[in-house]
Amino acid sequence: MLRVARYRLTGCVRIMVILIIIPRGGLFAATTDPSRKIVTFEDRTSLTDQVAIVTNPLPGCAPNTTCKVQILHVLSFINALAVQYPLASLIILDQIVLSLRSNPKVQDVSDDSIAIKDQETSLTNELNTPQGAWFEWGQDDGHIRVPPVYSKGIRGSGVTVAVLDTGIDFTHPNLAANILGGFNAILEGGSYDDDNGHGTLTAGIIAAIPYMGKGLIGTASAADLVAVKVLDTTGRGYLSDVINGLRWVHDQGIPQYNIRVLNMSLSFAQGSVPLQKAIDRLSKKNAIMVASAGNCGQAHGSVDESGGEDGGGSATGCDLSQPAQNAVLYPAVYPEVMAVAATDILNNVTKYGRYGPQVAVTASGGALASGGTPVCGDTQQSGRLLSTAPGSGYAWGSGTSHAAAHASGVVALALQCKPSLSFNQVVAQLQATAHFNTCYPAVRQGAGLIDAAQLIQALQPCTQ
Asked: pTM for this one?
């Protein structure tokens, strides 16, 4: 019998919390490494010409010296190279960039900016496996309403979701059966195992499956997962790593695993030509891309990754008087990507979630702290979400990462019902069946909180 786990896991056996916190990193000033660039070329520029252009000659470097260029990634699907130049001086680097931009075959030279995960997690260890199979509170009938969909036999079967994140623990008993494979976009040929925890948490929300009848039930527990490791052990990654992951999905993941959904619970402070081009290429493959809107805390161009704190403090709560400062982050900004904001346990829109006209919908994200200005008679309430963690355990977390993962799972449910749905059709149906909270403007919630049961009802009859 399936049970819904209420706040703090009512009805589950004891949980022992081990005091291991994945470092937040807080505000970090550097969002780029100046020596790393992504050079995008005009169409039909051969790889041989691309390599020649980025390597010869280098201003200020004598021939046959150690002053050499390292090609980090060949991003063939967008006709680009990720390159690391010798950082002899910023003046020389500026000369190199000017030289590249003056070449008629070069379309763009972008900084290889840094992405971060969009939530904070604290690891826990289960002394005893929870009794029976259970939904977390974010999925229950008071939130995004997944259980009624399961009763119709819709659980995401036949749909593959790529999780672009820190990897996935492919030995976790509640995930292993659903993982088809993966790719390490940071170090090609390396492991796609999760050495941070964020990716495993995200994957569990999307498609955890009970093992021997016990454990968390994901939003789409019959969906398949593919791990695309684009973030490192600190929860950060370069733009070129993310684009390399997108390249792999485009070139190999879609043909090999029939990937339909991409979950990107990560953020960049700025957009770029290569990222936009990569997103465009994936959209033409009928990929449905879902991304977190991002968490507030931006200052001086940096990004705060301490997501899920909702006490209204200046460090984490969005300043509603400064919409530009707290705008939706990339890639969620792009129109080919569904931007998802977060709600708390009372379905209030969280204060930490970024906002803007790009937000399509909200989903359960949880909150670490309570308090703040009353909304509709209620204050913002704490209530973190539990999901899978490396080492066969579970972890608490909150942030727009969780919200995006819930939305990706619901998209998988919709695609099982009607596999032919396009990105625009999926977004339109999610918005048409969402619940708009009149306490908040549309820029903070889009069409409102997604409702899986109402969505599947609107899609009837299924054509699976």
From this structure: 0.88
